Amino acid sequence: MGLKGSLFWNTLRLHQWVAKQSNLRLLTIPRGDFTCIRTMGYDAVSKPALGLYEKGGDYCRHRAIELAREEIGDKPGNVAELGVYKGETAKVINHAFPDRKLFLYDTFSFFDGGPLETKDGTSARNYAEAHRNNASPSFDGTEILKKCLPYSENCVFRKGYFPDTAAPDADEKFIFVSIDVDFCDTVYKGLEFFYPRLLEGGYLFLAVYNFACENDVDRRCKQALIDAEKAFGPFKKVPLPDWRGTLVIVK
Ligand SMILES: C[S@@+](CC[C@H](N)C(=O)[O-])C[C@H]1O[C@@H](n2cnc3c(N)ncnc32)[C@H](O)[C@@H]1O
Question: How far apart are CA 56 and CA 115, in angstroms?
């Protein structure tokens, strides 16, 4: 079957119709091998960080972070991400919580030469490309990230192996945490560190929970969560239908 008449086509037509009735704009965003369709109803009134999404970010997860931020309001607490890579999600967190301290935990050594746009609009691509072949634990990507994060002055970079790098932060409290690591032992270590430090009313976004159709990593990450619940009691859980199979834990 061609595009016309396919489920995708019918869904697109439906979204086009809804958008027209509501006088809204409809964007289609290429994302890997599929296309994400969304209407812009709430976006039209709630001022999302749209510039960050139009190039194809994980819209559902990143927009959910912004909506969680609206629920959090003025409640106190720091924000954090474990597993930062090139900062795609860290940018959204930093943008959503401009006045809060953002703790970032990663080895910051896996830059592979993709384009990185800095906040003044220049591209750090050449710098990253120059270091492409040196992606090793000695490579320090934090300088590139500082140029990409909108409020980098509020960011604390914990470079190295987590949980070792979290030792100075034992007394910190968090209102929002993103854990986005592909290794299940790190998932458990992340939950073990952050869950007891998550404040009442806080959100923890755990990526790679429902990811890649129940593959091995997926199953082991679920096991990490089961183990954490045994240690800390049952979590309040909301799964998201986003690209990374995120589970939201609310305290
Ligand atoms: C999937 S990427 C993160 C993607 C990122 N959150 C984003 O939205 O673009 C996973 C990252 O976790 C980091 N990571 C995994 N285990 C780690 C550990 N034990 N200590 C430090 N960093 C770790 C890796 O270095 C990698 O950059």
Answer: 14
Domains in the chain and their CATH numbers? 1-46 (no CATH), 54-250 (3.40.50.150)
Amino acid at residue number 208 = V
Query: Are 102 and 155 within 8 A, CB to CB?
Result: yes
**pTM higher than 0.85 for the full model?**
no
Of 31, 176, 181, which is best to mutate to test ligand 1, by the most ligand atoms within 8 angstroms of its C-beta? Answer: 181
- Ligand 1 within 6 A of 85 CB? yes
**Cβ-Cβ contacts under 8 Å for 10 (sequence gap 6 or more):** none
* Identity of the amino acid at 164: D
Q: Encode pLDDT of 176-235 as tens digits.
A: 999 998 777 788 999 999 999 999 999 999 998 887 655 555 566 788 899 999 999 999
